[in-house]
Design brief:
20 strands, six-stranded parallel β-sheet, elongated, Dihydrodipicolinate Reductase, domain 2, 14 helices, binds L-homoserine, 3 domains, alpha/beta
Length: 402
Amino acid sequence: MVNVAILGFGVVGSGAAEVLTDNRRVIEKNLGETVTVKRILDLRDFPDSPFGALVTHDFNDILNDPEITVVAEMMGGSHPAYDFTKACLEAGKSVVTSNKEVVANFGAELLELAAKNGVRYLFEASVGGGIPIIRPMVNDLASNEILSVNGILNGTTNYILTQMLENGAAYDDVLKDAQKKGYAERNPAADVEGLDAARKIVILAALAFGKLLNPNEIHCEGITKITTEDAEFAKDNGYAVKLIGHAELVDGRVLAMVSPRLVPCSNPLAGVSDVFNGILVDANMLGECMFYGKGAGKLPTASAVVADIIDIVAHRGKTERAPKFEVAAEADYADFGAYKCRTMLAFADKADSYEKLEALFGVTPKLSHGRIVLVTKEMTEAELDAKLAESGLKVLSRIRLL
Ligand code: HSE
């Protein structure tokens, strides 16, 4: 029998206890032994929960218990989650987590610490909720060079975009609904302003390119500036509007970014709706490979946490190949100005703007829902900035194409 502890009995933490209990038989069958929750750390008490008697408010009850060999951290936030993780690894306990903030900020250090102490640090649930993506990137794609990663990585914003743009729902109602369903972060600004997706794309970029960028230092735009007119333009022209995390190498350096994109309907990411996430990995031998499933929510995310616990128990005593990446140095960051793509631009409908824009961009602008709209040829961010400055026109919307 293996004893585990849960740190944080919120949406995902209580889900992990539920998965371990409700799926006890299938886990026993797959693993050949029982996994039992011995202690749960939380600031609150849960007198009505069947797990209420396991709750402690003292982390030392877990740290100093030699019977607890695996700890599942689902507290959210950097502190004290990072500090507790570090203490557990140093004490020879393996740690699994759904906490993308800790992985994105401290993942390289914690992996190194785990290796030094002969234990493991696994984080399958930190990206894509229940979708297997970390383990496939580390193991199944190991024979490939990764060319790019494009992902719908935030369930809350995808739910909001789908409900608003496709079903005409109001922003506040949909956000409340996403919170009720347990998709949204405690502070939903992390979802709608793109930071949650930024944390996830830097984790995927680290697995793909070996360098862990700082999620606060990459280009990051959320969904709050998308307008009804943008949505109408997208609909009329065969695009879906999605918040996309993108990573690739530019001039040999790592570029990771988050921004809304117009995704052509022929791209499989265009069909990823509601709380679902989709991650399209382009690998040099395999080609494109899509990972799809529920990217947020209690049981989907908890099932990935429990899969990591099972992995640790199944490989106990053996040296498993761990993800390998290091904190990016300044020179590892690509110049965002050198990133190339096509972009949709919208301007106010003024008669003298048409010719000016056509001369500058070499494409014919069109009237769309009361605005002048054009889609540029492929050009770098720096070239586009320079042309916009030269035009002297105020840009109403600037959305990149995928
Ligand atoms: N708030 C996150 C999302 C939870 O909506 O995707 C899962 O990481």
